[in-house]
Amino acid sequence: ExxxxxxxxxxxxxxxxxxxxxxxxxDVQDAPWKGALVEVGIAIGLGKMVAAVIVGDLEGxxxxxxxxxxxxxAVQRCATVETAxxxxxxxxK
Length: 93
What we know:
Layout (H helix, E strand, L loop, with lengths): L4 H13 L3 E7 L7 H11 L3 E7 L19 E4 L2 H8 L5
Parallel strand pairs: 1-2, 2-3
């Protein structure tokens, strides 16, 4: 927990900026994800790739409860966390 949410969001922004990308993991039964969706927006805004692992069924063309951002070109849907991680960390040969 943090006592200073301004500091928290500045730190999250800095961490995302310095990262290879962001992994969003969401179970539709846990929606809404609140801050996690803001983190996705920060990542997309910074030109980072977002790997999205969604557990559960999404509704219609809006992909509720996650949202249509899943169609953004910077977002790649992954079936598992392991697949998402492999997008950012490739084993050396």
